[in-house]
Amino acid sequence: MNTAVAGYIAAWRPTSVPAEAACSARQVAARAAPSGRERAKNLLRAAGKLAGWAVPLGLGPAPQVLLHPSVIERFTAYAPGLTGVARRTLRTNLRFIARRVVPQLDPADAPLPREGAKAPYTATEIDGYLALADAQPAAARRMRAAGLVCPGAGAGLIRSDLRQVRGSDVACRSGGVLVTVRSARPRDVPVLARYHQRLLASAAFAGSNLVTGGTGPARHNVTNPLARSLAGGTGLPPLDTSRLRATWLADCATLIGLAAFMRAAGITCSQRLGDIIAALEPADEAAAVALLGASARRTIPLAVLEGLIDGSGIAPEIEVLLPVGVRHRQLAVRTLIPGMLLPLDGRRPAFLTGAHAALIALPAEDQARLGVSADWKTGPHLLTCRQAGHTFHLVVKALGKDQPDGAPAGILIRICNDLLEASIPAWVTDATTALAADWTDVETWSRPPRHGTTECAGPEASWGHRNSNLPGPKGEMFYGYYLPAATMVAEEHGQAIPELARRMTLCSCHPGPARALATVLLAMAAAGIALGDMG
Fold this sequence. Notes:
Elements: H1 3-10, H2 19-32, H3 37-54, H4 63-66, H5 69-78, H6 84-101, H7 123-134, H8 139-155, H9 159-163, E1 170-173, E2 176-181, E3 187-190, H10 196-206, H11 223-229, H12 241-255, H13 258-265, H14 273-277, H15 285-291, H16 302-312, H17 314-319, H18 333-345, H19 352-360, H20 364-370, E4 373-376, E5 379-382, H21 385-399, H22 410-422, H23 426-429, E6 435-443, E7 462-467, E8 475-488, E9 501-504, E10 507-508, H24 513-526
Helix pairs in contact: 1-3, 2-3, 2-6, 3-6, 5-6, 7-8, 8-10, 8-11, 8-12, 16-18, 16-22, 18-19, 19-21
C-alpha cells in the first residue's frame, strides 16, 4: 500500500457513522492493504457501515468479532435500509477484508436476494402502447411517444442511449433500419422490422433534434412525461423502459434460437459465454441486420417478384391509365406493386405504410434501380410515404368505378387475373382443368354505419353471414366483403399438382360471392382457358 492510500485511510472521517465505528474501519482497511484510493474508499465504507450497525447492538469493535462470518451474514441479510445490490456489494468487500485481516475465518456463502430480469411485454401490450402513441392529441406528442417505444422495444435502447438519439441517427442501410448510438458504448443497432415505419416517421419529424424531445442529451427524467401519456388504464401495465429492452432481448433471442442453443449445450447461465464471445469477431452490419430481424424476412426473392410482374404485363397497362403531371412522379407502378407484395410475403398486412417501409428497407442498389431513391437538385431523395400514397391513389382511381356498386371494375378483374396467371408455372396450367371454388369472409376496417344510415368509411361493404368451427355459435354476422377463389386441383385419376389459386376476386356481400365468381370463370372461358370439373 503506497503512502497516498495510507494517508487517505488515516484522514477518513465520515459524518455518516459514529467516531468509534470510523476508527474500527480505518484499522481494518489499513490491514487489508488496498491497492488504490478507490478500493480503499469502498473498503472503508463497507467496514464503517458494519461497525456502525454492530457497535450500537453491543458488539465489540475488535476485527475478530465484527468480521466473523455470522456477523457479516447477519449484517448483509438484515441491516435496514439497504437494497439488494448494496447488500451483495457490501458482503463482497467485507469478505475481502476478512480474508486479509482474519484469514482464519473464511466466510461461508449464503444466498442473498437478486433482482431477476424484467418480464418482457407481450405483442398485444406493445400494440396497445403503439395505439396509445397514435392517439396522442398533438403530432409532436405522437412522434415523441413513438420515439420512446420503438427504439426501446425495437433496438433495446434505454437511459442515456435513448436520450441521446437524434432523428439523423436513424438511417436505412444494409437492407434494414439502424440506430446509431453515441453514448459511452457507441454502436449501430439494427431495428426490428415491425418498428421500421413508426421509427422512421418519428426520426423524420425530429430531424436533427432528439427523438424523445428536449433540448439537451444530458437532461434526466425525460421519459417520465412520455410514459405517463401512454398510461393505458386498466388494459395495460405501466410503461417501463427496462421492460421495453427486455422485450427486445426476448425477440432477438427468439430470432437467433438462443434457447435451443443453450438447451443443447446444457447451459442455464450465460455468464461464461462472455469469455468465449470476447475471442470471436462480430458479424458485419449486413449480417447483423439479417440476423436480428431488422430486414423483412422474405421467402420469395425480389427478382422473382419482379419477374412475375413483368411476365403479367400489368405494370405498363396501369401506367398508361395514370395522368401525366407537370412534375416527375418518383414512384412508378412497376415499383409500387413489388412494395405491396413484399409485406404479404413477410406475413404482414399490405398497408400502404407497410409497402413504403418495405421499399425503403431494400438494399441501396435496389432502391436506386427501382426509383425508391433518386437524385434531386438538392441531393439524394428517399421516397416518402406521401409520394407512395399519391401513386397509390392514382392507381385506385384508374382501376375503380365511377359509381361503386360492390363489385370490382372490369379492368381491375383483368389485372388481377393476369397477375395470378403469371404466378402459375406453365407445366401446372396444362396439367389440369379441374378447379375447387370456395369463398371466405373479409371484415372491413370500417365501423358499420349507424342504424338507419349508410355512411361509413367502407361504403361498399355490407352485412354478411359466416360459419365458424370454433366453440360457441356456428354462425354469425360480419360487416365486410367476400373473397371468392378458384383453386387448381388434380383431376380424377390425374397426376398430383400443387394447389395454386388460379382466380380470385373481392365483392360485397350483396349480390354475393357466387355471382362474382361466376363472372370471373366466364372470363376465363372467354379467354380460351378450358374449364373442367368444378367442386
